[in-house]
């Protein structure tokens, strides 16, 4: 088991190195001198310029700069934001819980609806329910979620007034210092009446928007995986034993049908991060996605560089974890390769 | 074959003439009603895009100062002069949407073509050379796939600057790995087959072997990927446009139009509704078409 894990972990090392290389090169391809970008258009004396260049390590040969960059990254130094002068890592960890919270609720929404709906569609294959679910799934899969978000804001939040338009909590009514960074938990801990409900209320629309594409994928995946399992011998045996259809489907079939679905859920982290950029921008959700976009607007390249590096690292690590967990659940994978 | 027919004829049975591949394809494809619907809508959108200058009532950037934010014809105060209303600068929405079809399809098709050609070249090279070349190519593709698509596209655009051509570059980079992996995997599968060995023995050179012998047998999954790749590219480019990192105003790209319309979300909702609807309909119909292609071209991949 340990050997399997180490083997998989070792495979990510070149990926990380290449990722560092790409972020390093990308930032150097930005037109204009990084120092001049930093000091703005007023211009400074040549001595100050030389001083800045030295401070940023730009007087070194390029290969040395790359080695230093990798060395810094390995020590957890992802650079300093030009806009706030804070460490990129500090900013990242301050904002990341917001993105995780949103993603978790989005996945909760997607699985809670997608798995039962997909399973029912498979059992009632060809029925109107199955057909409409597949049509809806195609629509969800093709959805430009930035538009979907605006549409929901327009209808649900503005016209019907059912949910807040943006933000994470009603800031006028509730205020407390962040403890975990997760608004729902912090609201709970604060003990203020209604704060937790307000945090949940603010999560409804963004979670639906971010969860729409995963919902479509999960429903479709569960359906096709379930159809495959339902034709297996052990399902027929379970039926022949006289088990109730609910037990056959719920206990015997669904459990096995879920293995590929769980993998798909795990591997959708990358998609979630991409979706979070759009969702957070629409709902003014103070997470990583919104931060990345704002960094571009502020021409804060170190923040962008560190942010992309960190987001991608999270995705790579989660994928590794899914891979290993899959090996734990399914020994054939572990021993097969 | 001839012997079979002769034998069958000898038994007095009627033998159906061998089906032509195109007819066989159409027979399977047309069974799928959704796919035919997709084909019809896509064809209509393509026609609109090509004939945009003739069909659109106005120039997409022409501003009518007397009719700023005119509502669409079905709403109160709407008129047939501007069927879908006008935007914040008094530009005709219908004309902008029609011209937007041209831009979105242009992005989708160019991304698809470039990734198709590059994907074939890189994938075949990877399968053919194997060894270090293969490892480097596969690892690079893995890396590109590890960075979330939109985040990578954002990085590329942030570096190169936002514009229509750079959108195409960014989206192509994001979609390239899917093509490369597909070509590599199917080429590897084909390379182990007998007909390839036979061709080798017959003295076919490597370039001809890969392009003329192996590639045609990898095309089915590639064509399906290409169809779905167009819709992915359109979505991705529209997302960039929406974030202000894609095509720049006054280009009437659908995502960019949505971004412009955000400030009118309360007062003039159709400005938000229409461009998104255009994106959704286009992407759905291309996906329907792609599903139909999958069913017709590759029975193994058929969705149950």
Mean pLDDT of chain A: 85
Radius of gyration computed on alpha carbons of chain B: 24 Å
| Approximate strand percentage of chain A | under 5%
CATH homologous superfamily descriptor of chain B: MetI-like
Structural class from helices and strands of chain A? mainly alpha
* Residues in β-strands, percent of chain B: under 5%
Uncertain ranges of chain A = none
Considering residues with a beta carbon less than 8 A from a beta carbon on another chain, report the largest interface and each chain's count.
Answer: A-B, 48 and 46 residues
Q: Which architecture of chain B does the CATH hierarchy give at level 2? A: Orthogonal Bundle
Number of strands of chain B: 0
**Helix content percent band of chain B:** over 70%
Quaternary structure classification: heterodimer
Domain module tally of chain A: 1
Cα end-to-end separation of chain B:
33 Å
Question: How many whole angstroms does the radius of gyration of chain A measure?
Answer: 24 Å
CATH class label of chain A? Mainly Alpha
Supply the number of helical segments of chain B. Answer: 12
């Amino acid at each position: 088991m340990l050997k399997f894990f180490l083997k998989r972990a070792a495979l990510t090392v070149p990926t990380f190195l290449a990722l560092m290389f790409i972020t390093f090169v990308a930032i150097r391809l930005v037109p204009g001198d990084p120092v001049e970008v930093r000091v703005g258009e007023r211009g400074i004396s040549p001595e100050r310029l030389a001083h800045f260049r030295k401070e940023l390590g730009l007087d070194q040969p390029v290969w040395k700069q790359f080695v230093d960059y990798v060395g810094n990254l390995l020590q957890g130094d992802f650079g300093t934001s030009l806009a706030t002068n804070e460490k990129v890592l500090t900013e990242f960890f301050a904002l990341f819980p917001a993105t995780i919270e949103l993603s978790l609720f989005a996945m909760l929404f997607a699985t809670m609806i997608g798995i039962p709906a997909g399973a029912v569609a498979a059992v009632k294959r060809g029925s109107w329910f199955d057909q409409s679910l597949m049509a809806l799934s195609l629509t969800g899969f093709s959805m430009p979620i930035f538009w979907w978000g605006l549409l929901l804001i327009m209808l649900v939040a503005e016209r019907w007034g059912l949910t807040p338009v943006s933000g994470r909590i009603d800031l006028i009514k509730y205020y407390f210092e962040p403890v975990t960074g997760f608004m729902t938990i912090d609201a709970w801990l604060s003990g203020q009446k209604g704060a937790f409900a307000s945090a949940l209320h603010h999560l409804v629309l963004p979670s639906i928007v971010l969860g729409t594409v995963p919902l479509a994928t999960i429903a479709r995946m569960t359906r096709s995986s379930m159809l495959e399992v339902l034709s297996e011998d052990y399902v027929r045996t379970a039926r022949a034993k006289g088990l109730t259809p609910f037990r056959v489907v719920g206990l015997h079939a669904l459990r096995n049908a879920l293995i590929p679905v769980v993998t798909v859920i795990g591997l959708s982290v990358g998609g979630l991060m991409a979706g979070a950029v759009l969702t957070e921008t629409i709902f003014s959700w103070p997470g990583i996605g919104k931060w990345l976009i704002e960094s571009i607007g502020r021409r804060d390249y170190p923040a962008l560089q560190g942010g992309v590096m960190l987001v991608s690292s999270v995705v790579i690590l989660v994928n590794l974890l899914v891979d290993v967990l899959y090996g734990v659940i399914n020994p054939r994978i572990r021993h097969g390769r | 074959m001839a012997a079979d027919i002769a034998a069958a004829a000898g038994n007095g049975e009627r033998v159906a003439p061998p089906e032509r591949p195109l007819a066989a394809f159409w027979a399977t494809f047309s069974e799928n009603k959704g796919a035919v619907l997709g084909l019809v809508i896509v064809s209509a959108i393509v026609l609109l895009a090509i004939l945009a200058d003739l069909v659109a009532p106005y120039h997409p950037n022409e501003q009518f100062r007397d009719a700023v934010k005119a509502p669409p014809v079905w709403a109160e105060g709407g008129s047939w002069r501007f069927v879908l209303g006008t935007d914040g600068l008094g530009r005709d929405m219908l004309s902008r949407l029609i011209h937007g079809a041209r831009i979105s399809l242009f992005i989708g098709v160019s991304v698809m073509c470039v990734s198709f050609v590059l994907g074939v070249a890189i994938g075949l090279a990877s399968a053919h050379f194997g060894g270090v070349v293969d490892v480097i190519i596969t690892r690079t593709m893995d890396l590109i796939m590890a960075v979330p698509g939109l985040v990578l596209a954002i990085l590329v655009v942030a570096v190169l600057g936002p514009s229509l051509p750079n959108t195409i570059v960014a989206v192509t980079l994001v979609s390239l790995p899917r093509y490369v992996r597909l070509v590599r995997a199917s080429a590897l599968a084909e390379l182990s087959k007998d007909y390839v060995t036979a061709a080798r023995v017959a003295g076919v050179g490597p370039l001809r072997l890969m392009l003329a012998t192996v590639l045609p047998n990898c095309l089915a999954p590639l064509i399906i990927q290409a169809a779905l790749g167009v819709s992915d590219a359109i979505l991705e480019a529209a997302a960039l446009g929406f974030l202000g990192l894609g095509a720049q105003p006054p280009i009437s790209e659908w995502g960019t139009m949505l971004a412009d319309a955000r400030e009118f979300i309360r007062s003039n909702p159709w400005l938000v509704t229409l461009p998104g609807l255009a994106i959704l309909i286009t992407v759905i119909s291309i996906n329907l078409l792609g599903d139909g292609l999958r069913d017709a071209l590759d029975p193994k991949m058929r969705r149950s």
